[in-house]
Amino acid sequence: MTSPKDFNDRMLSLGLARVSEAAAHASARLIGRGDEKAADQAAVNAMRDQLNMLDIKGVVVIGEGERDEAPMLFIGEEVGTGQGPAVDIALDPLEGTTLTAKDMPNALTVIAMAPRGTLLHAPDVYMEKLAIGPGYPKDVVSLDMTPSERVRALAKAGGVKDSDITVCILERPRHEDLVAEVRSTGAAIRLITDGDVAGVIHCAEAELTGIDMYMGSGGAPEGVLAASALKCMGGQMWGKLLFRNDDERGRAAKAGITDLDRIYSRDEMVTADVIFAATGVTNGSIVAGVKREPHYLQTETILMRSKTGSVRRMIYRNPIR
Ligand SMILES: O=P(O)(O)OC[C@H]1O[C@](O)(COP(=O)(O)O)[C@@H](O)[C@@H]1O
Ligand SMILES: [Mn+2]
Known about the structure:
alpha+beta; 10 helices; globular; binds manganese (II) ion; hydrolase
């Protein structure tokens, strides 16, 4: 196992940005074409090619799925040149496949890297999520509270009215009761159709996005990626895996998870320093989408390191030849 001191995050982070940039470039020509699969595949191929150029002994712990259902970037796949630190990789080559296919905001390519053995091996099930930005007392809200208790607690801690709070929630039939309860407090709700990695990140930049809290269930893999981002930006997050049937419980067992009711804090999902990169595919509130000009493609990437809390936004212009 790599000790965190071998994890040269300063060097590796720039390489990570190249990986998410390449995935965004590759899916650019598929924005708004109604073909989610093709857009995802283009991102997967590009991400894998770039990842394999990095001097790491990488293993995908959050990826495109199990080996038998994902030919590439499957969970357990080894990536990188094999020269360098042993690391865990979490990725979502295209977070917001539907957003991309429909040319709707906030589709991202996302990747995180941490020393081997330090990222939660979340199976491909749902996760109940709760996130807030930096600056609040520890555990001011929790998954054990009801949604309205969370709104009241957050408002009180921030010295504002309940009606000044905005909660971000995925618009899904399963969230109808959640939405109704949050509304009963007078809080506002930003409903999003997809993309809860961006949804959670929005909490860390509340002054920019207007979002104070994220609530509701979404993909567990996306939960670990969002926790990685919040660890860099500051902010608290909790997640609880949700299992609907034996197949899903079996996935947990395979991933080595035995306590099925556990609530994971941000730092229990990401136990050491992590680096995180996300590149915009469609325009969003975190980064701009791919800009297609006659002679070049331009992307914007957010690149962060939890060790220093540094947040970079990088513009990359790649000539089309
Ligand atoms: O659509 P569901 O089943 O509610 O799942 C929610 C998940 O799907 C997404 O909206 C989109 O994810 P993908 O584009 O990677 O499929 C995630 O952001 C979210 O966690
Ligand atoms: Mn996703």
